[in-house]
Amino acid sequence: MAGVTDRPFRQLCKKLGAGYAVSEMAASNPKLWDSVKTSRRLNHDGEIAPISVQIAGADPAMMAEAAVFNANKGARIIDINMGCPVKKVCNVASGSALLRHEDLIARILDAVVSACAPLGVPVTLKTRTGWDRESRNALRVAKLAENAGIAALTLHGRTRADLYTGEAEYDTIRAVKAELTIPVIANGDIDSPEKAKHVLDYTGADAVMIGRAAQGRPWIFREIDHYLRTGESLAPPSHGEMRELLLEHLDDHYRFYGEHTGVRTARKHIGWYLDGLPGADSFCARMNLIDNTRDQWRAVSDWFDTLSRDAMPHRAPVAEALMAA
Ligand SMILES: Cc1cc2nc3c(=O)[nH]c(=O)nc-3n(C[C@H](O)[C@H](O)[C@H](O)COP(=O)(O)O)c2cc1C
User: Fold this and answer.
1) How far away, in angstroms, is 156 Cα from ligand 1 center?
2) Distance from C-alpha of 191 to C-alpha of 210, rounded to nearest angstrom
3) Which residues contact 218 (CB under 8 A, 6 or more apart)?
C-alpha cells in the first residue's frame, strides 16, 4: 500500500507473522527512479526475504525495464499493479485503467515475464475484478496472466468503479480460483482471523492478503496464522506489548525517514495504533503538533504509561494497608 507499507512496516508485519509483504508501488518511469521517494521505496536493506517489488505503468518496454532494474536492486519477485484506482495512476492508463485494454495487458505481462525469466525472478499480478460491475473481466485477465507465465494472482474483490466503497465480493475470486492452476490470493475487507478463514473456505484461494486491517495492527498476521492453524483465537496484545511494538516501529521509522519526514509520516501510524483506545483522540491532536522525533517518541511512551496506570484496578483500602505493612 503506497504510503503505508514502507520497509519498517513490512519488516514489522513479517516479524509478526506475515508470510509475505510487497513493497509500495514503484513507478516504471526511469525519470522517477532517482527521486528521494522512489529510492526510499527501493531500499530493501536488511529486509526479511523474499523481497517483492510492485511496479506500475502502461508501457510494456518500460515495465520490463523497471522489472529488471528492481531485480538488479534485490527484488526476488516482481508484482505488477493493475488494481490501483488512483487518478494519478489511471490517467496514464496504468493501475486499474489497464483493465479496459486486455490486448495491452497481454503485452505488458509478456514483456515483464520475458525480461524476468532469465534472472530467475517470478512475476505476479495484482488486480481488481474489472473496470466496473458491468464489465467484470477478471476471469479473462486471469487466463491471460496464467498463459503469460504469471506465477500467482492477487485479486481484490472490487471493481475500479467501486473504489473502496461497498463490500468486497468473493464470488469472482471463487470463479477465478476454480479456473486457474496458479496460486490465487484473495484480497478485500479481510479484517479478522474468522473472516480470513471464511474467505479461504469460500473462495478456495491459496492465501489471503491483508491491507488496511494491518494499519496500526501488525499483529493481525500472527492472530490469523494462529487461528488458521489451531482454530483458536489468540489473545490481543496487552497495552504493554502494543507500546513496545509501536516504539520499536517508531525507532525503525525514524532511522528510515530521518528527522524531518520521520516525525510527520509517523503521525498516521501512531493514530492507527491508538485508534479506539481511551483518550486517543485528544492525545493525537496534541501529538500531531510535535515536530521532532524525540518528543514524539517520548509522548507516545508516556501516554502508554498513563494508560496502563489508569487501567490498573483501584486497590481496596485493605489491600493497600496489607501492602504497606
Ligand atoms: C492507502 C492505500 C494505498 C494502496 N496502495 C496500493 C498499491 O500501491 N498497490 C496495490 O496493489 N494496492 C494498493 N492498495 C490497495 C490494497 O492493496 C488492497 O487491495 C485494498 O485496500 C483492499 O484490501 P483491504 O480491504 O485488505 O485493505 C492501497 C490501498 C490503500 C488504502
Assistant:
1) 9
2) 7
3) 9, 12, 13, 16, 18, 245, 249
C-alpha to C-alpha distance for 154 and 28, rounded to whole angstroms: 20
Q: Would you say residue 318 has pLDDT above 70?
A: no
Would you give the distance in Å from CA 278 to the centre of its chain? 27
Instruction: Please report the pLDDT score of residue 311 as a whole number.
Output: 67
Nearest-CA residue for ligand 1 atom 26 is 211
Residues in contact with 325: Cβ distance below 8 Å, sequence separation at least 6, in sequence order: none
What dihedral do alpha carbons 183, 189, 190, 194 form, nearest 10°?
Answer: -130
Q: What is the pLDDT of residues 262-307, one digit of tens each?
A: 999 999 999 999 999 999 999 999 999 999 999 999 999 999 999 8
If 0-12 CB within 10 Å is exposed, 13-18 middle and 19+ buried, where does residue 130 land?
buried
8 A C-beta contact, residue 191 and residue 247: no
Enumerate residues 6+ apart whose C-beta is below 8 A from 320.
none
Contact by Cβ (8 Å): 294, 251: no
Question: Does this model's pTM top 0.90?
Answer: yes
Q: How far, in Å, from the CA of 170 to the mean position of ligand 1?
A: 17
Q: Residues in the chain, how many?
A: 325
Identify the residue whose C-alpha is closest to ligand 1 atom 30.
1
